[in-house]
Amino acid sequence: MKQNIDIELLVQQITDEVIAILGNSQPSFNNHSFHAHDVETLHNLGVARIGATLGVKNIASHLAPIIDHTLLKADAIPSQIESLCQEAMHYGFASVCINPCYVKYAARILQGSRVKVCTVIGFPLGATTTATKVYEAQLAEDEGAQELDMVIPIGALKSQGYDYVENDIASIVRNTRSLVKVIIETCYLTEEEKIKACQIAKKAGAHYVKTSTGFGSGGAKVEDIILMRRTVGSDMGVKASGGIRDRQTAESMVNAGASRLGVSASIKIVTE
Q1: Cβ(169)–Cβ(200) below 8 Å
Q2: Of 61, 78, 104, which residue is a domain's last?
Q3: Which residues partner with 262 through β-bridges?
Q4: 177 and 206 share a domain?
């Protein structure tokens, strides 16, 4: 597997670092300095967290590669999308999360960069038909989207239409090549419904479960992240989104088990 860093060397350096810390000796990363893309690579390989004592000089380097830099406002204009993309490249964010109408535009700006194009499907209500969601997802993918944040049919879940919900998710997974994140909109669900939604998303083959659209009655909560992580285990991503406006909140979500953050206050979070 071709990577931009020597993974074996980096793992060995991390091991040496831990041993040095435990032995109270002075650790050193003589041959490699961490950058945002290195942290992103380690996240993609399954490393959940990298602490500052392991060579990341500040928490911004830890958070930036797991942030979806987000602009989903109805009145967003092209110049704002361009700024969003430039900021994402500058700070090393994982993706830009934008409405489908701007996917092609963002993909052109981000071409050749590490930043992914993420868009939303069935957003924000999740109430379009499965066929409509599939078409929307495929069109977005054709125009350059690499990650799809889809909203489940919330009413179907709450009325125990579990087969319908599973098929809704699985249809997107089966008919696209993209990474699929499933928005369960936790603010409308009981604890039991949150667990069931996560179980269904995992069974349907999705890659992430996500808390919120940011357009509901509430956003991400630490207790929901803990519950979602416990439910899906370590082999599936958990995205916290909605109401994350400062570094302390972002850190609390990561510490609770979030492996991706959907935020619009991204720059504030990584620079404050």
Answers
A1: yes
A2: 61
A3: 68, 241
A4: yes
Count up the domains in the chain and report the number: 2
Among residues 133, 196, 210, 221, which one is catalytic? 210
Beta strand pairing call for 147-151 and 116-121: parallel
pLDDT (mean) for 8-23: 47
Any residues with CB less than 8 A from the CB of 11 and at least 6 apart, and which? none
**Residue 268 appears among annotated catalytic residues:** no
Active-site annotation holder among 116, 196, 202, 239: 239
Domain boundary among 45, 61, 77: 61
In this predicted structure, the answer to whether residue 59 has a pLDDT above a threshold of 50 is no
Does 38 participate in catalysis according to the annotation? no
Residue 76 lies in a domain: yes
pLDDT exceeds cutoff 50 at 48: no
Among residues 38, 149, 168, 224, which one is catalytic? Answer: 149
* Model confidence at 52: pLDDT above 80: no
| Domain presence at residue 113 | yes
**Given this model, what pLDDT does residue 1 score?**
41
Give the whole-number percent of the chain exceeding pLDDT 70: 78
Span 170-197, average pLDDT: 98
Known catalytic residue at 2: no
In angstroms, rounded to a whole number, what is the distance separating the alpha carbons of residues 3 and 22? 29
Q: Which two tokens stand for residue 160?
A: 């125990």
Domain co-membership, 47 together with 103 = no
Q: Domain check: are 156 and 262 in the same one? A: yes
